[in-house]
Specification:
By secondary structure, this protein is of the alpha+beta class. 37% of the residues lie in helices and 20% in strands. The chain has five domains: 91 residues; 208 residues, DNA primase, PRIM domain, CATH 3.90.920; 189 residues, P-loop containing nucleotide triphosphate hydrolases (Rossmann fold, 3-Layer(aba) Sandwich); 69 residues, no CATH class; 60 residues, Winged helix-like DNA-binding domain superfamily/Winged helix DNA-binding domain (Arc Repressor Mutant, subunit A). It has 24 helices and 27 strands. Strands 18-17-19-20-16-21-22-23-24 form a nine-stranded mixed beta sheet, with helices on both faces.
Length: 733
């Protein structure tokens, strides 16, 4: 592959790559022994994004990992853009390459015939003028052919068109037709009445008739002689093709000039392939040569072997290709049928069994949200182990089964060591390591819409109870603050759940700034879709630990360790209840009762325990659940590398980080400035929780804050940073 990578890169336009794909190309080239200048020369093709020196700086930062990015990643990027490989060679998709579409198509048209009748008053000039006015602007060049040459195809005479003319505009032709006194031969040249005449349906540049001479990929030709004319007419109409002009060819077929309106040649090909596939599924088996945008079609207003070529209809079907494609896909969907509630009332389906008892069902989605250093990744690894071994997780019973952990952030070695560290800290014998699969994708991540099909293919038939993706910011597609883009992103989780029948669990970070005053479901960064999409949301907030609590915990720790050593090495020593809970007293007893070496080891354990105590953090976990009742907030310690329940209840009275603690400043009244600041912050917090696209309804703010709409309007005006328009408001520009 080494010698071919630069050739394969020719099929990848750097402007079509996102930042991650651009980096992937660089890392793969370095891994395969190429130079930074090779990467830079390729990057230069995208002048809009190229920055001098950037390739060299990035190149020096590529130091390799246990799972390097190889040349195969470049090959895959090229394949995604139409490259095919075979017999040691590669080629770009051409017109004869089949393009497959997802989904199972079903026929739409019945094909019951609709007769085609000749116009009563056949006016050649009117026919051609109508054609030109419908398809072209006055200043656009039109290609047409009236001269033919004769071939002998197996003893049968056949008239074939020449290249014809292409240097006259639609406006010039229309003007000439209006003044030709019915003699269209004076305008286009005399044609052979046995052969008819042809015209090109897309505008040209006036320099030739090849595909590269087409100036606007506006129309495509739909023509088939595989069924009777009447049935062709019916199918074209029943499919609601966006037809600009429908012409009878004077032979065995109709010529439908279909609106495509593609911005590029590549997009034209994709749209025409989709169009032809739908037609073929409904009996119109179209010659693939017709796909060329410079293709000739039959010119109306002339005769062909005694039959007239004429316009049957114009501007029929859907108004645009996009509208038509959406219509077709809405019919050819794989959605379930509607069902009557009455029919299932006495035969309700069984609910999916719990995966995490009281929190999440099998086949559903869960999000863990929290700030950095909350141990979210460790919590997910703890969950992997709990599911594999069938033990509790954060105090919740778990179903036992196989789990896939998709690691997007850690290098392979760090990830594997972390699993072993967590297993050890949980004091669990690793009996079911075979139930945990790890997919290490650091350095190889792609957006979730591209990752999901690959994940589904790999996970199929492995019967995973859960797939855990950590973290999702690595695979987010689009703007995380955009509700519609994040809705499409979250749909990928549904696709994984549905196709594999597994639960999908993932984590995301909190938004920047203080989280005080926000509901737990509104703390995750980005659009509110993140919080509202999953079936279960577990949110972690850090608790403030005061010096008194730390001292209390340290004293208890000293007493417990000392008493344990006394019981182990000198059970005969009597320790009163008061001495049992007094650090200085029990240490004095231990010093007097234990050998010097033993007491020294006791002190070492206390010192280590104190270090662990000062490094641990306290957290409160709140749940927003769709399938189960809300549980009481859980208070946990995070003692690297695992979370432990606050079994003593000492964290119950701790306030969350940034949260108002009523025990502080007791009896002190706020001044006017503090009250104004508090009202301003409450509006900011509420708006961030309900806004969609930078605006929201005033009624939604009122519901969030638990006040009247009149109060909200007053606070918005006092704030000064919002516009108000009747029942809506939003941030000023």
């Amino acid at each position: 592959m080494n010698g071919d990578l630069l050739k394969i890169l020719e099929y990848i336009d750097p402007s079509s790559c996102n930042y991650h794909e651009w980096l992937t190309v660089g890392m793969a080239l370095k891994e395969e022994g190429y130079s930074a200048s090779d990467w830079e020369n390729w990057s230069l093709r995208d002048a809009a994004r190229y920055h001098k020196g950037e390739c060299a700086a990035k190149w020096n930062s590529f130091n390799g990992t246990g799972s390097p990015v190889t040349g195969g990643s470049i090959v895959q990027l090229a394949k995604d853009r139409g490259l095919t490989l075979g017999s040691g060679e590669f080629k770009e998709l051409d017109w004869d390459s089949e393009i497959n579409f997802e989904g199972e198509d079903m026929p739409i048209a019945t094909g019951e015939g609709i007769p085609v009748t000749e116009p009563r008053n056949f006016d050649p000039v009117s026919e051609i003028v109508t054609y030109l006015e419908t398809l072209f602007e006055a200043g656009e060049n039109v290609g047409y052919v009236t001269e033919t040459w004769e071939s002998d195809d197996k003893g049968k005479r056949k008239f074939l068109p020449t290249k014809g003319a292409w240097d006259r505009t639609a406006g010039e032709l229309i003007a000439a037709l209006h003044s030709c006194d019915g003699d269209i031969g004076a305008v286009f040249g005399d044609y052979n009445p046995e052969a008819g005449a042809w015209i090109r349906f897309n505008p040209l540049d006036g320099k030739g008739v090849k595909n590269e001479n087409v100036t606007d990929y506006r129309y495509a030709l739909v023509e088939s002689d595989s069924m009777p004319i009447e049935q062709q007419n019916a199918v074209i109409r029943e499919l609601e093709l966006p037809v600009a002009i429908l012409v009878y060819s004077g032979g065995k077929s109709l010529h439908a000039i279909v609106r495509i309106d593609a911005p590029t040649y590549e997009e034209y090909r994709k749209r025409v392939d989709f169009l032809y596939k739908v037609c073929k599924d409904n009996g119109l088996d179209i010659d693939r040569q017709n796909r060329n945008p410079s293709r000739l079609s039959r010119m109306p207003g002339v005769t062909r072997n005694g039959r007239k070529q004429f316009i049957i209809d114009k501007n029929i079907g859907r108004e645009s290709f996009t509208e038509w494609k959406n219509y077709i896909e809405s019919i050819n969907d794989d959605l379930p049928d509607e069902e009557s509630l009455e029919s299932v009332w006495n035969f309700l389906p069984e609910l999916s069994p719990p995966l995490i008892d009281g929190v999440l069902r099998q086949g559903h989605k869960m999000l863990i949200a929290g700030p950095s250093k909350a141990g979210k990744s460790f919590a997910l690894i703890e969950l992997c182990i709990a599911l594999a071994e069938g033990v509790k997780w954060l105090g919740f019973e778990c179903a036992k089964g196989r789990v896939l952990y998709v690691n997007l952030e850690l290098d392979r070695a760090s990830c594997l060591h972390r699993f072993k560290d967590v297993y050890t800290a949980m004091c669990l014998p690793p009996k079911h390591l075979d139930r945990i699969d790890i997919w290490n994708l650091r350095g190889r991540t792609v957006p979730l819409d591209q990752l999901a099909p690959k994940l589904i293919r790999r996970a199929d038939k492995k019967d995973y109870k859960a797939i855990i993706i950590d973290p999702i910011y690595k695979v987010i597609t689009g703007d995380e603050n955009s509700a519609d883009q994040m809705a499409r992103f979250c749909n990928q989780f549904d696709k994984i759940c549905t196709e594999l029948g597994t639960a999908v669990i993932y984590c995301h970070h909190h938004s920047k700034g203080s989280q005080s005053g926000k509901r737990s479901m509104d703390r995750a960064s980005g659009s509110g879709v993140f919080a509202r999409d999953p079936d279960a949301l577990l949110d972690l907030t850090e608790l403030e630990i005061n010096e008194g609590l730390l001292t209390q915990q340290a004293n208890k720790l000293i007493c417990d360790i000392a008493y344990k050593w006394l019981e182990r090495f000198n059970k005969d020593v009597l320790v009163s209840q008061d001495e049992r809970v007094t650090p200085s007293a029990i240490l004095d007893i231990a010093r007097d009762s234990l050998q010097h070496k033993t007491f020294s080891l006791l002190q070492d354990e206390i010192a280590a325990a104190k270090r662990s105590l000062t490094s641990r953090t306290a957290w409160r976990i709140e749940g927003t659940l769709r399938e189960f009742p809300k549980f009481k907030p859980l208070n946990m310690w995070f003692e690297y590398p695992i979370h432990k329940a606050d079994s003593e209840g000492v964290l119950a009275d701790c306030a969350a980080d940034g949260e108002f603690d009523p025990r502080k400043n007791l009896g002190r009244k706020k001044n006017a400035k503090e009250r104004k600041t508090e009202r301003k912050e409450s509006i900011d917090t509420a708006f961030s929780g309900v806004e969609q696209g930078g605006k929201c309804k005033i009624s939604e703010l009122a519901d969030y804050l638990g006040v009247t709409e009149k109060t909200v309007r007053s606070r918005l005006k006092e704030h000064g940073g919002f516009w108000i328009d009747e029942g809506e408001c939003g941030l000023k520009a």
